Amino acid sequence: MRLKLAATAIAAACALPMQASADGEVNIYSYRQAYLLEPLLNAFEEDTGIETNVVFAKKGLAERLEREGRNSPADLVMTVDISRINELVERDLVQSVENDTLEKNIPENLRHPDGKWFALTTRGRLIFASKERVEEGEITTYEQLADEKWNDRICTRSGKHPYNIALFSSMIAHHGEEQTEEWLAGLKDNLARKPQGGDRDQIKAIHAGECDIAIGNSYYYGNMLNDENQREQAEAVRLVFPNADGRGTHINISGIALTNSAPNRDNAIRLMEFLSTPKAQRIYAEANTEYPANPEVKPSGIVAEWGEINPDDLSLQEIAENRNAAVKMVDRVDYDN
Amino acid sequence: MTEAITAEQTGADSPLLARRTSKRWLITAALTTAIVVLPVLSVIIFALFPEENIWPHLLDTTLPRYLTTTLQLMAGVAIITLTIGLATAWAVTMCEFPGRRFFEWAMLLPFAVPAYVIAYVYTSLLDYAGPVQTTLREWFGWRNAADYWFPEIRSLEGATLMIGLVLYPYVYLLARAAFLEQSPSLFAVSRSLGHSALSTFFRVVLPIARPAVAVGLSLVMMETLNDFGTVDFFAVQTLTAGLFDTWMNLGNLGGAAQIATTMLAFVVILVTLERYSRRKQQQFAARDNRDPIRRFTMSFPRQLICVAVCALPVIFGFLLPAITLGQYAWEYFDESWNTDFIRNTLNSLFLSGTAALTTLVVGVTLAYSRRLHNTRGMQIMMRLSSLGYAMPGAVLAVGVIVPLAAFDNQVDSIMRDTFGVSSGLLLSGSAFALIFAYTVRFLAVSAGSVESALQKITPSMDMASRSLGHTPGQTLVKVHLPMLRGTLITAALVVFVDVMKELPATLILRPFNFETLATYVYQFASDEQLAHSALPALIIVLAGIIPIILMSKSISGTRSIS
User: Is this prediction's ipTM beyond 0.90?
Assistant: First the structure.
């Protein structure tokens, strides 16, 4: 009976998998939620008839890709942060793509020099200020976040979150480690509460009066405005594009890379091309209120209303390189406690 | 009617059982253990090759806090789960009060609520912007946070409470089964010798139930140690948080594996200590267990206390979260309701069912082999095979990928070299990989409970069966399995509910386009919008209820009660 049970279980288990390797497909490992990709992939399928298959996870996909090696069914990896995608390059899991369409659509500073990754969208890491309690122009730079006047008035999510790590990395790139650590310790002293929750929670905290200043990605604000249950909370804050008059606002990217194994290489490159076209870029811009990477496409309605963004032209590569230094700095200033 | 309780080591490891047994069971058990331990071994191997030595930095900065927080969390959860679990198990087993039959199964309801869901729900209810504080502010005219004090839900205490509320059913379940199995005459004897009910509980009932309670508590402790969703959401910095930080932020998988291995060692030491402390105990269940339990009849105020003790955990661990989810599901119904819904539910049910069955078969095989060959080696194998539970799911998942991908690529190389065709990946990225991962992870649940139940069956049963000409296999099927029915169903259903909720390993190992209810909910929860997937979250909870009711019925059914 034991054997029979086990055999039945295993047979049932093997009947289920949908190994995707037939023609007319492209397989994606995604760090970005599948439901956010759906409108784009549907449009691609409609245009080309090529089917797309997705696995979404926030960790472990690089390890899976690495271990599957040359037999990995994955063609593309999509990420939401520069250091994730840079890690793929460092571990030699992705290959170069030379492609005229991609090089025309994606500006040089938003792709890897050898075409090992391409940004698809950018997002600013902005400052949100209470409309009630913070004057317009009272805060205009990241550096000012460490000013004593904001003592007990700032909220952020965990300093270890990749979005904050990237921001701190960019500070290290601009000011060096020593000065950045001083700044970070100052920011930590100004926190109104222990870092917690996500970016939306910081906006909610301003609405609730717990703090006056928060740091967050632009699209969280946009998406809150689009959700009627959260609109009131979002309307309590004013957007500040930090360092707009100076070096520019820190941006991060969501991007795409071609794996080494890429069994459906041609289809995968067609998808990469498609995602860089104005049609797909417009969907990105509207569905998740992000900034299109393709300069020909203008930001969608509400994003356009926020005004122009002047992005910091620091190379993303450099931000990725400072990651470890930033992570350890967060521990040293005890940011999360 | 019970023989040899807490007696010195007796005929339990009687050589009679082992000598007359072929080596088949031993070999099967050894092979199974070898396969099941592979993922854990992979992680240990990772630990040998870190990107950089992480310990100096950790020791200088966060490690002391990680350790303190972890120990505080574990101690707090242990106290909560033991208090709720034991008190309610005792109440529904031994006391007569209105609603007792309802609470018998209702006590298990919080088990169906994933910890990350309950954490989300309570945060949205209790944080500054939530309805509770907003209402209080309106009533008392407070303007902002500085005007009053309110307990912070996103804290160590909050996390302890959340985790304790959804994990106490482990203790309840195993304690109740153990209480039901105890002979009521023991209790009567203790009372007639002058002990109060309370004193009898601590001196007689609890010591006899201890192996089962220890299994339940060790499951709770391991789940607590490995929890990432709740502590991350609450910004409580445990070792697990440090582990994921090392892995994902510092890109140091080896360093993360070292932390995981340290945690593993910690669990092994805890479990060993518990076992060592009762090494001289040997328990066998009564031969005739049909003696009816006579419940206490109590005064009305005492009945009320019983009702309150049982109702509170259910209200806070289940009712309130379910109602809140229901409300969200209503608000966001159009977004929640789509056609993938049924498919995801079926996927979840299929995986949970298959994993429950597989885990049970493997668990029984191991536990029974140990009964046949009660050697040191077999004991070690039992422990080794249960290690998967002591590791965070995402780390274990990477450990699962390693042997499976190595196997696939090896087969593929051979196929390419000899036949010139590629066989590609056979097991990786298939449902098999998921079932394998679940088995490795949840084997501790089934093997542990089957083992502790088997220990209570007197060896004279085996002897009688064997002397009547049955093989060990026939003895298992005809004698032990029927006697273990309650335990088997319980173990299978616990695994079922656990797999239903399992998230990190499922995310990493699943095939393309494959969603379970849990992964579907996580997509939204991880994007800070759990409310949008409240409907599937509610279904996880509801789908967990059905096995819970079955489970409870089957346990009551193992015992006649008057």
Answer: no
